[in-house]
Amino acid sequence: MSNKTKTFLTVIPFQGKNELDAVRYQPVGNDRLAYGETHYPIISVIAGYARPGDTVRVIAVKTEGENYERNFNQYFLKEVLPLCESMGLRFEGVEVISSPDEETIEVQLKLFSDIVAKLATDEELYACITYGRKPTPIVLSMALNYAQRLKKGSSVECIVYGQYFHNEQKLGYIYDTTSLFYMDSIVNKLAEMRASDPEKAIRLMLGLEEQEED
């Protein structure tokens, strides 16, 4: 059991009535993400990372509109609430961030501000970037980066993306993309250090180039 609150961020999708399938996401690169059928990859993350007795918060970004409201009430709440209860979690509930159905920069910056305002210190952060408009993953990454750097004691533990091709078997893949988030931090650090050959340093860290022997 972790002493830190585990906070899970997700986005409610737009899919119309009867278009949001329950999918068996096969994990790629992270076996902790294995789970049964779900409409939301973040459910796999909760099941994989939360433990009995953990304090858990869920933050859901929900765009204003009928489809989003239905997908939140009929699918998301009906999955996350029973899961947290069955796992024996200290569940603090689902906190909703509402956003206008627009893609203007003003709306995106407001969303960033609203997410940051929800995040606290001493949290383990988990996020799903599967759903949302195209700028949404950027906004989520910005908010997580803010928390990692400026919310004392907080850390980003796992970021996932679910891929689904609407096949008859209802099979998909869930990818752990956390390393991409940390690569951005590494690039910033290399810039601060004024590394003489940052591209080579990155290739070495990725195992794409053998380190020269002295």
Structure at a glance:
This protein is α/β, with parallel strands linked by helices. The protein folds into 2 domains: 5-176, Rossmann fold, CATH 3.40.50; 179-214, no CATH class.
CATH class of the largest domain: Alpha Beta
Secondary structure class reads alpha/beta
How much helicity do the residues have?
Answer: 25-40%
**In total, how many domains does the architecture comprise?**
2
The shape is globular
CATH architecture of the largest domain: 3-Layer(aba) Sandwich
How confident is the prediction overall: mean pLDDT? Answer: 91
Largest sheet geometry: 8 strands, mixed
Summarize the helix and strand pattern as letters. Answer: EEEHEHEHEHEEHH
CATH-defined topology of the largest domain: Rossmann fold
Q: Proportion of β residues?
A: 25-35%
Distance between the termini: 45 Å
Instruction: Give me the CATH superfamily of the largest domain.
Output: SSO1389-like
Low-confidence stretches: none
Radius of gyration: 18 Å
Number of helices: 6
Strand arrangement, major sheet: 3-2-8-7-6-1-4-5
- The tally of strands reads 8
